[in-house]
Structure formats: structure tokens, C-alpha cells
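Pilot study result, target chain (240 residues):
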Amino acid sequence: MYAVMSKLCLIISKLPVYQSGIRTIIKENFPEYDVVKHPHIDALTIAQLHQANLIIIDLHADHLLGKSLCERYYALMNQYKNIRWIFMVSQAAYPLAVEYLLRPASTLLSEAEPIPQLINAIRKQSDQIDHISTLLLCPVSSPAESSVGKIATLTQSERQVLRLLAKGWAVNQIAKLLKKSNKTVSAQKNSAMRRLELRGNAEMYAWINTAQGMKELNLLPAWEEPMQWKITPQKDMSLS
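Predicted structure:
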């Protein structure tokens, strides 16, 4: 029996919550992929680029998005032609993305893309790729926007648990930090998801990444976070 070769997916985003959300979607729907997360393009290594099959780039969180950054991605796409590139872009960045990032091996998705559409984009073979999302071609209100005002109010404990989950903490790590049992933390997470009518971790992370989720949990981009949320959890090898 020969070992099945795993694939490599690279995620590039400045937002830890976005990294965690995309990683969860990949792990739940594409277990054949190993996932590596980076905050920006400069963190990519040559070895990773040679091994990568898929790269998902969150451009809507990059406040410095401009011609120079797009040119860098354009150069990488020309150099590494065997990689699938998926760019998550805002409506404002769409014209620049079309000019520089629309290539045979790339797909442009909206920052408000529903999870099933992202999964579908990852699953499609190279000859089936839809290069531009319909949400970018014909922008409409996203599900998150249409549900504004209908979100249930979370308790302080539920909000605290979701906020730590958004930062990459595992349930047992949160339990140690808050001096609670794993069962209590899991119950608070599940209670929050029921209030929000979320079905599974992928939907939870997707909600967290919406404007409403970030506001509800008082999440800020990594470079603006309050100091008390910059604690780095100890690595738990059993959770990988």
C-alpha cells in the first residue's frame, strides 16, 4: 500500500479570525489538505510555494491593498503555475483585482461569499473554474447583512468564549484560562451557536468574520487588539 500524498493549502490573512474560519472550512470539507496560515505575503517560503496546491488570500482585510501588492501576486502566479489561487476581495478592490489577479488559475470571490460558494470554488477542477463570483459581478446584500437586527443577544460568558475561539484558542485552553471545566466552555459555545442559529463550526467562524460578529465580540484587526487579548496559548499537539 502506498501512502496517500496530502495536498497543501496556504491561507493568507491579517485577521486571525479569518485564518481560523477558512482553516475550519478546509478541515471539515477537504481533509486531504494540510493547512498553513500566514498573516501576509512576505511570510510565504519558496518551499511552501513549490508544494502548494491551493492558496486562499484575504485581500479585503489588507488596508494597504494597492497596485504594488497586486503586482507581487501577479508575479507569483506567473512563476508558480500549478497553484490554484482564490482571492477574497471587497467591491472597492474589485477593479484592481480584475486588472492584476484574474488569471487562468485564479478565482475572485466576494468578501461576503456564502460558505457553500467558497467550498464549491475549492472543489472545482481547473477546467470548471468560475473566475469571478456573481456577488462581485452583481453585488447584493449578503446573508450577514440581511440578518442585521435579528441576531440574539449573547451572554457575557458566551461572548467571551466565542471571542477566544476566534483568536485560535481550543476549548481545553479556554477552560484553563477561565478556570472552568471543558464541559462548561463547550456548553457556552453551543448555547451561543443556538442563539445565533449557527449549524457547525464553519458557520460560527463565518458569522464571527462578519461586521456584526466582529462588533458583537468587540474584535479588532490583529494590529489594533487590546493587550489583554494578545496572550498566546500554549501549543497543544493533541489538537492538531
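One observation from the pilot: Confidence is low (pLDDT under 50) at residues 141-150, 221-240. A full batch analysis is planned for the follow-on phase.
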